[in-house]
Model the fold of this input.
Amino acid sequence: MEWLKNLGAAIDYIEENLDQEVSCGEAARIAGCSPSYFQRIFSYISGVSLAKYIQRRRMTQAAFELQRTDSRILDIALKYGYSSPSSFTRAFQSVHGITPMSAKKAGCTLRAYPPIHFSVEITAGSGLSYRVEEKESFRIVGLRTPLTESMDENMRNIPRFWKETREKKGLAAVMALSSRPPEEILGVSVYRGQGDFYYYIAVSSDLPAPAGMYAYTVPAAEWVVFENNGFFKEDVQRVFRRFLQEFLPFSGYEYAGLPDVEVYPALHKPSVQGCSQVWIAVKRGK
Done:
């Protein structure tokens, strides 16, 4: 439950600073995690990226002020961090569908996005099957693509990366790096600091990385392993969401901040569903 309280405190910080600079690093510090992890859990739990949430909240407050005060559009734009009326207008239209000038008129339709509140939802849902395993470090070799701090963007780019890799015969090249016929292929999200965030399509291998490919050693850790049988993309996202909402708050574990690993069958023909696993590294809570 302390984890949920920390998330709530991070949201309080964001709400108190909508008319100032909101620091993702400070929000993450309050939540007790790294900036990349905070953005990831925020996106999975809320269904929207942190940047989009902040924009929606600022434009919600801006719309209220446009309608109930005589403040100039430029003054409201500056208050919420926009240096020009044009940039403010673009942001406002992306949320409300109309211009700030139109929003001053009576009878116009606007959208209000309330603050997010994190809470425990009591449901009669299915149980969450998992096992905890200790795994030695292992080396992966394969292709990689850069990720961004926007989880919305990453959720679009990763499936595109898989599709392009398969279409360009890159998947077969990766699978050939395994020292034995591979039974599985890995999707690994690796964050090592600001601007150093990658997603790998790889296999476990001790071979040197060929030109255009990369090697990485996943540290030894204790892992929560979730088994899935369904659509790959939807199930991976569902597992992370349930891990954050249903497992982490009550398990006595903490997120270890190590790479997240997706395990897929080494299929030679395209497939969007089947049996897969998600590994999430954890550590014992204090």
